[in-house]
Design goal:
2 strands; 291 residues; globular; mainly alpha; two-stranded antiparallel sheet
């Protein structure tokens, strides 16, 4: 465990930022694909399903507000900004565990939605913290590859959450799907606890050193100034152009993906279960897994 220091190992950096994004992908795939398709398959109206998906995704749309707070209180003796990652991972895992209280996702939709929203809030803070740490500890020559590992982790985690937890959901029930997700999140949170950014970082806060970290945080610019600088950067013409392109791409993908899933399940009567078979116009045809 003493050798798990991010600044001293290229391989550890690739692995760490990969699994940190797997942690984000698994709940996203479960909530926004597996559960959405499950709700569609239970004949809920498009408005109800869309409201669930929008509520779960909303915290990610306002994720930029966490940046100034993370930067204002970035210093910690367990690793600068690491305190944000560990704390938010733990709360996100607890929010995932609260899904175990859901016995019927349709009948308990408000409770399930609330648990997913709480998870999304703290997962979005964790994401912003991880990005800040990556900028701080990853050498510039490695950033492209590290970013590729991040994206790969998100896609693999999302696929596992969507396909893998769909299978668990339909074969064993919602409780076991939520339990598997929670187990993955808790295990990776424990791993994060033992990874240090610098060799001088401690695993646990030392009371004698808390004052020095607090003093460093007090020297940072005020939060109001950080928000003004963020607003100035966002409203620059070049930034706005990039933002509009990215926002349009994500919005188009989301609208098409959910509408397409609804059309396949409700209009074409594809099953939301993995690899089922059914009859279409009197002919037995294999069904693809719904998207």
């Amino acid at each position: 465990m003493k050798n798990l220091v991010l600044r001293e190992s290229t391989g550890l950096r690739y692995f760490t930022f990969f699994y940190l994004y797997v942690m984000q992908g698994v709940p996203a795939g479960f909530g926004l694909t597996a559960v959405v398709n499950y709700l569609i398959g239970r004949n809920l109206s498009p408005a109800v399903v869309a409201s669930f998906a929008a509520a779960v995704g909303l915290p990610w749309a306002i994720q930029f507000v966490w940046g100034p707070l993370i930067d204002k209180y970035q210093y910690s003796i367990i690793g600068h900004r690491k305190q944000w990652v560990v704390l938010t991972q733990l709360i996100a895992a607890l929010a995932s565990l609260s899904l175990l209280l859901v016995h019927d996702p349709v009948a308990q939709l408000p409770l399930m939605t609330g648990a997913f929203v709480v998870h999304s809030i703290f997962a979005s803070i964790q994401d912003a913290s991880v990005d800040a740490i990556a900028i701080a500890v990853v050498p510039e020559a490695e950033r492209g590859r590290v970013n590729a590992f991040m994206r790969g982790g998100m896609l693999i985690g999302g696929s596992a959450g969507a396909a893998g937890l769909t299978a668990v959901l339909h074969h064993y029930g919602f409780f076991w799907a939520a339990l598997v997700q929670s187990g993955v999140l808790l295990a990776l949170t424990v791993l994060t606890f033992f990874i240090r950014l610098d060799r001088t970082d401690t695993l646990l806060p030392v009371r004698a050193q808390r004052a020095s970290a607090a003093a460093l945080n007090a020297e940072n610019p005020p939060v109001s100034w950080l928000f003004r600088e963020l607003l100035r950067a966002i409203t620059e013409r070049h930034t706005l152009r990039l933002f509009l392109v990215v926002a349009l791409a994500y919005m188009t993908l989301s609208v098409f993906g959910w509408a397409y899933s609804y059309h396949l399940i409700q209009e074409l009567h594809w099953s939301d279960q993995p690899y089922p078979s059914c009859k279409v116009v009197g002919v037995a045809l294999p069904r693809l897994r719904s998207l």
